[in-house]
TrEMBL record:
GO BP annotation list: cytosine catabolic process
A Pfam family per the record: Amidohydro_3
All residue ranges annotated as the Amidohydrolase domain in the record: 39-398
Name the UniProt record assigns to this protein: Cytosine deaminase
Length: 426
């Protein structure tokens, strides 16, 4: 007797199977015809996936669009300035409320694990306190991993260093930084070194906003890889954005990528934001400013798509749907072969789970019973349609349901309802 069976769904690898759940754990992935369950979700013909994972977000700033004004130029630097104004006036309760609302959106989309940076450049650390509270309040349904992020520069801001260490003492999970925003290249490199040492001392992971510029000489990722190797942090370090790599010299990159692979440094491009913010100083041709995704993957480097922003000082759109993120990434990185498209889906599920170090993730016996049922037949169709999440299960509990989005047609001689699902071939 199972508590819940998800019946007849198609898994991302194409297998069709029933998933039997007991308590908060998957206990069977096989044909369960005749088995009894307290509750059954009919997923026949639908895609059943492990939950979506976002490896790069800013939950302390989300849903604040328009406060105290909008970002008129749309640039990264005006966004940082605007956030500086906003954090002087925002209250802790407002931050908690907005973050909880965002987590409702995320849950409805099957996005059940989020790594969020939290700004540590406020002596009161209101954002840190707010996000620690949110982490606690959503823990039954969303894994929230927090990164101590000195937005105004670990050295550049006079109290950022002390505040970042305080935030880690308060229980923030991951060490963050922003080397390209320090005053000089050498300050940036020094910040990478010290932040990696702090992480090694405390056995924490590292995730830096790294080289988020169009300057081909912004090469902090090289120092990050070197430090990861020196300090034995392989597999626990990520570089977010890495947009300067788009503009780097090819010879230099041919040396950099093997170094990153050897050092076990993962990459987190954020395609919605990178395509919006980069290349702003260019006339034409205008650079895309997305890092070298396929090239890194060819070197065996783990790459996961991140969302970064939803309705905040940097980005005026966003949906909490990782399929939107993967859809944009697939286009900008020209990942259009069937293998690459399927990989884009894998990036917002398995690859991102690996970057976060999530335990018990996946659709197999013994894993945590968290999954999402999508109105699509395959991962590629899910990317094309970004369809309804028919059911979302977190730790064995159904936490969200959504109807299919079939349209009712009024066209003579044509079907009464239409859904844009498609089977290849005749
Ligand atoms: Zn970010």
């Amino acid at each position: 007797m199972f508590d819940l069976i998800v019946k007849g769904g198609t898994l991302p690898d194409g297998r069709v199977a029933d998933i039997g759940i007991e308590g908060d754990t998957i206990s069977a992935v096989e044909d369960l015809s005749g088995a009894e369950a307290g509750e059954v979700i009919d997923a026949a013909g639908d895609l059943v996936s492990p939950p979506f994972v976002d490896p790069h977000f800013h939950l302390d700033a989300t849903l604040s669009y328009g406060l105290p004004r909008i970002n008129a130029s749309g640039t990264l630097l005006e966004g940082i300035g605007l956030w500086g104004e906003l954090k002087q006036i925002v209250t802790q309760d407002e931050m908690v409320e907005r973050a909880l609302s965002y987590c409702d959106w995320a849950a409805s989309q099957g996005l059940l694990a989020i790594r969020s940076h939290v700004d540590t450049c406020d002596d009161r650390l209101l954002g840190v306190e707010a996000m620690l509270e949110v982490r606690e309040r959503v823990r039954d349904y969303i894994d929230l991993q927090l990164v101590a992020f000195p937005q105004d520069g670990f050295y550049r801001d006079p109290t950022a260093r002390a505040n970042t260490i305080r935030a880690l003492d308060m229980g923030v999970d991951v060490v963050g930084g922003i080397p390209h925003f320090e005053r000089t290249m050498s300050d940036g490199a020094a910040s990478v070194r010290e932040l990696c040492e702090i992480a090694a001392d405390r056995s924490l992971m590292v995730d830096l906003h790294c080289d988020e510029s169009d300057d081909p000489l912004s090469r902090h990722v090289e120092t990050l890889a070197c430090e990861a190797q020196r300090l034995g942090l392989q597999g626990r370090v990520a570089g977010s954005h890495l947009t300067s790599m788009h503009s780097m010299d090819n010879y230099y990159v041919s040396k950099l990528l093997p170094l990153m692979a050897e050092a076990g440094v993962a990459a987190i491009p954020n395609p919605l934001i990178n395509i919006t913010l980069q290349g702003r100083h260019d006339t034409y041709p205008k650079r895309r400013g997305l890092t070298r995704v396929k090239e890194m993957q060819a070197h065996g480097i783990t790459v996961g798509w991140g969302q970064d922003c939803v309705l905040d000082p940097w980005y005026s759109l966003g949906t909490a749907d990782m399929l939107d993120v993967a859809f944009m990434g697939m286009h900008v990185a020209q990942m259009t072969s069937p293998e690459d498209m399927a990989r884009c889906f894998d990036m917002v599920t398995n690859q991102n789970a690996q970057i976060l170090g999530l335990e018990g993730y996946g659709l197999a016996p013994g894993k945590r019973a968290s999954l999402v049922v999508l109105d699509a037949g395959t991962p590629i169709e899910a990317l094309r349609l970004r369809p309804a999440r028919l059911a979302v299960v977190s730790n064995g509990k159904v936490i969200s349901r959504m109807p299919r989005e079939d349209a009712e047609l009024a066209l003579p001689g044509r079907p009464e309802t239409v859904r844009r699902r498609h089977k290849a071939g005749r």
